[in-house]
């Protein structure tokens, strides 16, 4: 086994081990970062929904209160406005799903399903919990979700949700008197939930991972070529030349020129030693011939 083969074998083993460790650590780190970035985007969208709710309560609802007494306008309902805005937003961000999951909603489309009800119960059990995130399995794959509690902090909300007798008649005509009532001040009645397929952060992580690994492999390839060129020029080439010279000298051919031996490294020291040995051997043969 030649020196070049041994060197390349060791170099390849070291690179393979380094590549495996780098792949494991970078893939794990990139997946975590992509997941956190997705959660941050989900949080930003949720803040947008909160802004829409606040805008609806403070500016839209007061303007339409008189008209709402005759005809129910769902546009004055904060949850409706936020959901509709998010539905429009999904045309550009189809992977993000927003829902105001409520245990006892006025609008049936807001009713919490089993896993959403579990989240609401967690918020009800811990009043200090302001945000819950996690993953869950679905028929279409794993989903990443971010949830925040919906708490009745504004007593004005109870005008429509305390008892049917005080609720606007126009709302009763649309949704009936069986749902969306019995809410209490400072009660957590639901949760805002933004869901994203895990395929989204994983795809982002895989793209970054592939770019990183290709860059790392490219760096190794360049390093591999440079080291082999240096190995040939600085070590294998001079040693091969000395080996050929030694073969010729061993047969009595002293026409081989001496090596320059200008460098101060090990190869240069070896070249000087070889030159001294050659001169000593040449002198010894001349003495014998006399």
Give a quick set of tags describing it:
61% helix; four-stranded antiparallel sheet; rod-shaped
Describe the protein in words:
The structure is a single chain. The protein is of the alpha+beta class and 290 residues long. The protein has a domain at 28-198. 61% of the residues lie in helices and 12% in strands. It contains 7 helices and 4 strands; from the N terminus they run H-H-E-H-E-E-H-H-E-H-H. It has helices spanning 3-68, 78-89, 114-125, 158-161, 169-175, 199-250, 266-289, and strands at 97-102, 132-138, 141-151, 188-197. It has a 4-stranded antiparallel beta sheet with strand order 1-4-3-2. A hairpin with a 2-residue loop joins strand 2 (132-138) and strand 3 (141-151). Helix 1 packs across helix 2, helix 1 runs antiparallel to helix 6 and helix 6 (199-250) runs parallel beside helix 7 (266-289). The longest helix has 66 residues, at 3-68.
Question: How are the SSEs ordered, and which strands pair?
Answer:
Elements: H1 3-68, H2 78-89, E1 97-102, H3 114-125, E2 132-138, E3 141-151, H4 158-161, H5 169-175, E4 188-197, H6 199-250, H7 266-289
Antiparallel strand pairs: 1-4, 2-3, 3-4
């Amino acid at each position: 086994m030649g020196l070049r083969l041994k060197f390349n074998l060791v170099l390849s083993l070291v690179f393979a081990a380094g590549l495996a460790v780098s792949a494991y650590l970078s893939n794990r780190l990139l997946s975590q970062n992509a997941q956190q970035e997705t959660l941050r985007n989900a949080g930003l969208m949720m803040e947008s929904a909160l802004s829409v709710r606040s805008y609806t309560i403070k500016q839209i609802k007061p303007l339409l209160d008189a008209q709402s007494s005759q005809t129910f306008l769902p546009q004055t309902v904060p949850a409706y406005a936020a959901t509709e805005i998010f539905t429009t937003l999904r045309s550009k961000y189809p992977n993000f799903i927003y829902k105001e999951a409520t245990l006892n909603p006025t609008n049936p489309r807001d009713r919490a399903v089993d896993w959403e009800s579990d989240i609401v119960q967690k918020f009800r059990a811990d009043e200090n919990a302001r945000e819950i995130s996690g993953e869950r399995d679905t028929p279409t794959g794993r989903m990443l979700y971010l949830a925040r509690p919906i708490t009745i902090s504004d007593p004005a909300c109870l005008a429509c949700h305390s008892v049917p007798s005080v609720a606007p008649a126009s709302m009763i005509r649309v949704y009936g008197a069986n749902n969306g009532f019995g809410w209490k001040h400072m009660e957590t009645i639901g949760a805002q939930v933004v869901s994203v397929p895990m395929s989204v952060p994983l795809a982002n992580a895989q793209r970054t991972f592939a770019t990183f690994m290709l860059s790392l492999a490219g760096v190794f390839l360049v390093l591999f070529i440079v080291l082999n060129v240096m190995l040939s020029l600085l070590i294998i080439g001079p040693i091969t030349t000395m080996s050929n010279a030694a073969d010729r000298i061993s047969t009595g051919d002293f026409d081989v020129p001496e090596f320059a031996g200008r460098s101060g490294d090990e190869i240069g020291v070896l070249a000087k030693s070889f030159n001294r040995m050659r001169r000593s051997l040449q002198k010894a043969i001349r003495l014998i011939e006399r």
